[in-house]
Amino acid sequence: MKITLLNGPTFNLSQKFGFDIKVVRSPLAKRLTLRIDEKNHRPILTIPRYCSQAKAIAFIESNHDWIVNMLARLPQPKGFSNGESISFFGKNYIVLHTPSQRGTCFEDGFLKVGGEIEFLHRRVLDFLKQQALKKLSELTVKKAKQIGCRVSGVSIKDTKSRWGSCSTLGNINYNWRICMAPVFVIDYLICHEVNHLKHPDHSSLFWEALKNICPNYEEGRHWLKVKGKELYKYV
Ligand SMILES: [Zn+2]
Questions:
Q1: CB burial of residue 74 (10 Å; 0-12, 13-18, 19+)
Q2: What is the pLDDT of residues 212-228, one digit of tens each?
Q3: Where do the domains of the chain lie, and which CATH numbers do they carry?
Q4: How far away, in angstroms, is 166 Cα from ligand 1 center?
Q5: How far is the CA of 132 from the centre of ligand 1 (A)?
Q6: Centre of ligand 1 from the C-alpha of residue 177, in Å
Q7: Pair 184, 216: CB distance under 8 Å
Q8: Which band of pLDDT confidence, cut at 50, 70 and 90, is reported for residue 4?
Q9: What is the pLDDT of residues 77-122, one digit of tens each?
């Protein structure tokens, strides 16, 4: 069912309930429904065209425990920390605080991070983004060449709404977190975006062409749907 968003105010209910909630008024909705937006850690309430705020709040109140439960089950946002293992383009590295070192680098299975410990998260984040951009650019240009296309530019974004996008001008954007996904997932995403250089929409032609350059694309797509949210915990 396609939902036309008439408006999408965020009701600030954190004082009342301990969480905020996005309310979407939909002319197609016949009743009030709740779902959890896993990427943004927030419940979304869809209400029919004529529904009072009081009724909406009463509905939230009656589902309060369910919402709290669902939110508690989501991966908690976290930063990078010393000693943790991370995956970068399918290889595992242990983050290792190395105060004497200048800068950040991959070395012998470690991601070595210099400087003060309180800046470790920021340094790992900056480093991964920079390395991800380099690798994603190379792989994207190569893949585009394979299908006889040219990419105008590759950039990374810190978006929570999508994994990648391709503009009509041929610029491809990626969510930087994709660098921590398994290689077959990264490959799927690159193929998907590059394929948009030829097919701007998600028509049946698009999926047919995608199958030619990425035969197991469904596995990558499925992984992002099911496990992608795990990577959103990195903020
Ligand atoms: Zn697409």
A1: middle
A2: 999 999 999 999 999 99
A3: 10-73 (no CATH), 85-231 (3.30.2010.10)
A4: 8
A5: 20
A6: 17
A7: yes
A8: very low
A9: 788 999 999 999 999 999 999 999 889 999 999 999 999 999 999 9
